Amino acid sequence: MPEFKDISPPELIKDRGSLHPINHMKDSIMEMLTSFGFEIIDGPEIETEEFNFDMLNIKKSHPARQMHDTFYVENKLNLLRTHTSPVQIRCMLEKKPPLAFISGGKVYRKDDDATHLPMFHQVEGIYVDENISFAQLKDLIYKIIYSLFGEDVELRFRPSYFPFTEPSAEVDILSKEGKWLEILGCGLVNPVVLENCNIDSNRFSGLAFGLGVERIAMLKHGVTDIREFYKSNLDFLSQFK
Amino acid sequence: MKIAYRHLVQHIEESPSIEHISNKLFQLGHEHEIDGDIFDMEFTPNRGDCLSINGLLRDLAVFYTVDLNQEVFTEKLNELQLDFENLSKNTCPKISFLKLEIDQVPEMYKNSLDNYFTDLGLNKNNFFTDVSNYLSYETGQPTHCYDGDKMGGKLLFHEIEKSEEFETLLDKKIALTGKNPVFSLNDIVINLAGVVGGKSTSCSTNTKTVIVECAFFQPEAIIGKSVKYDIQSEASHKFERGVDPDCHERVLRRFIKLVDDHADIKEISIISYDSKYNPIHQLPVNVQKINQIIGINITENEYLNYLSKLRFNIEEGFIKVPSFRSDVKTQNDLAEEVARVIGYNNIPTSEINIPQNEKPNYKDVENKLRFFLLDHGFYEVINSPFVSLSVDEAIKVDNPLDSNREYLRTNITNSLVENLLFNERRQKDSIKLFEISDVYSSSNGINKKRKLSIIASGRVGENYKDFSKKINKKYLVMLFKKILPNEVFDFKIVSRELLDTKIKNEIVTLEANINSFSSDILSYNEISQSPESFTQYSPISDFPSSFKDISYSIKDYSKTQELENLLLNYQCDIIKDVYIFDYFKNVKQKEIKIGFRFTFQSKKATLNSAEMELVYNDIVDKSLSISGISIPGI
Fold it and tell me: Of B74, B126, B281, B302, which residue has the fewest beta carbons closer than 10 angstroms?
């Protein structure tokens, strides 16, 4: 038997906290994208219609601009941004191409059910340079998806529609259960948007993409109800150390 | 929109299978589900032209030999004498009316009309409305049928901005407010244009004379109306997305043909009002630009062949966009057409190299704070900014989800207090949370502040050193002094008097602007790290938890480790957590006292004492089987 004085106390297990899984997911995506060459930019969550819609070629008649889809504040003077794209618009107005930006953060839409929340998180990126093509966009998307889900994952591109990109695509991955799951939206920046930002669309073209952070976090962690992320339940949060 | 497979395939020479068409539709970007023989289509909002059999066939024509020439009435038509005036030609630049009188209302439907109702399981209404609904399905152009016998007087199309009650043909009374495009008959609204017709002039099963209105409305004038007045309207769905302004004559001649197939027509007359609206865009042929946009290398012949199949006309070096494709305006739009035909998945990738620039991490201080807090047991939370309570500077949401979410929060602490109470109700006795967020207020414009807020209450920690220590203001002050010795922070104690709780532990909070933390924190060496992998979440239980403590006396202290290994790794589906809450080395007695806390919780039901007792007894039996160990009192 060892000497009594030599007996050490049990290991002192200090309880460490944890990052919120959505912030952790967002940070991981941003870190991956900065390694590809993107620069992080930030902007306000309260925006004007001009930056949130007009500059992005979202017409006055677009359904997203209706009161039932967008939160307006201060007697419709401003709104809660519905995507992080206005951050990129502000930066495109300030800087000249080539430019490669990503922005991540909270966005707001007037939804509230088991699969949609009025507040959620996006990471969006834009790269503007000479001769950017859809084929290069595909290469970037493959890199992003492979980084997130591994190189064994099967993915597909589907034509889609966003006013700020043309051509536009949505990208799905094939789940283990054989179901296609939508992961991100992307496209070539609509020349109208470039011109709105005083960028010569005859010389420059751009690519853009956007990911819903909650969607990716749910897939990566196996969370099935989006509302779990925002209950601040320690039993939930303590699982993500 | 539901479209029957057989309604499509009867126009396709190759007779492809439903799966084959489904694959092609996906390639073209037309999402859908298949229910039996029915495609349940979901079109992107820019492709209003596809909201019909013919629209979909026009797109499928790039892959198949498609026949779109449904029979139309070809004879010469008399001009309709109608007392009509269009006072808003910008909103409705093109409109036509057709008047038809039949001798007898048919009792049975034939051919396409019958198939439409049978295959899609739709309810019939009245003959003319049924023809109109089918025609909208076939051509994409909504038409509205007025009972000809109820249409005496002056008909007006105009936009009104006065409040007026209007009873729809679905017997719903709506109060029109704001600006609305309407048709009025003798100054009474009879139709909310592009959305729903009125009851006073609607057709019935006895109607033998009909006036059919076929119009092009600017989408901007229609959008939002069906939601505003809570009306399910397929017509407005189509008008909002844009219909073909140049289809009126063909659609109305098709209408006549369908009626002619079912009844003897006594009278036909038609009139069109055209405000010289020209929807045709043209773009120069530039295959190099298309190749550059997509990153491919196709020939001009291939390119133009694709577009021809999609019904674009090529004339003298220009591509004329068909009138039904209001979405195509630029070379990028044409590139998308080509990419869809080739298939996005068939376009090869081309390596991208984004130049690497210097990237300052402007959130260094914020990240250091996060990891410092993690090291001391704080959990990061994210709360919604919407609150019910207003303070002077709070920003009001014009269209909140409900009255409990009418304002944007001006502080984070109140959210954290809610989080703390939530966790206390779940029997948590050591709660440490923080949130970093932008907070907005309004005084002389919008003010944005990036803030850190923390809250702590209960035990300092769940280990044998911190178990009996309670969090208080002093504890938090000392914590921050460690990293920022020269800075003073305004820690506050939250009174529990107004909170819905019986727990007495002190609640300490801090809310500070991120920029009030100096860069001194950058020298802090964090222990915690971002997780490298993504933990698989295990669903949490909503059933109550309870705990049991077991204190041991160990004389044969060489067995301490064995006991720890046994208890800390004890597996049972109703034990949620176990930790050492007490440890005492009695030098005089050469004895070790060690206490373990077991938290019990089931994922299936509320536990009863017998269930816990069973596990407790097993733990006791197994631990007492180690020699030299005893449980005082047992």
Answer: B74
May I ask the CATH architecture of the domain B78-274?
3-Layer(bba) Sandwich (3.50)
- Tell how strand A39-40 and strand A99-108 pair up: parallel
Give the integer Cα–Cα distance in Å for A102 and A82. Answer: 16
pLDDT in tens, A115-174: 889 999 999 999 999 999 999 999 999 999 999 999 999 999 999 999 999 999 999 999
Secondary structure (3-state) at A40: strand
Residues 98-137 of B with CB under 8 A from A: none
The predicted model scores a pTM of 0.89
- Interaxial angle between packed helices B560-568 and B609-624, expressed in degrees from 0 to 180 and rounded to the nearest 10: 150
Q: How far apart are CA B41 and CA A24, in angstroms?
A: 37
Measure in Å the smallest separation between the Cα of B97 and chain A Cα atoms. Answer: 27
Distance from CA of B362 to the nearest CA of A (A): 9
Could you please state the CATH topology (level 3) that the domain comprising B546-630 is classified under. Answer: Alpha-Beta Plaits (3.30.70)
Cα distances from B340 to residues A159, A185, B49, B241, in angstroms, run 7, 16, 16, 20
Q: How far is B315 from chain A (nearest CA, A)?
A: 24
Q: Does the domain spanning B2-60 belong to CATH 3.30.1300.20?
A: no
Give me the residues of A, 62-81, that contact B with CB < 8 A.
62-63, 66-68, 71-76, 78, 80
Mean pLDDT of chain B: 93
- One-letter amino acid identity for B244? D
Answer whether the bond into residue A167 is a cis peptide, omega within 30°.
yes
Domains B2-60 and B282-344 share a fold: yes
ipTM above 0.90, yes or no: yes
**Close Cβ partners of B129 (under 8 Å, ≥ 6 residues apart):** B145, B202, B203
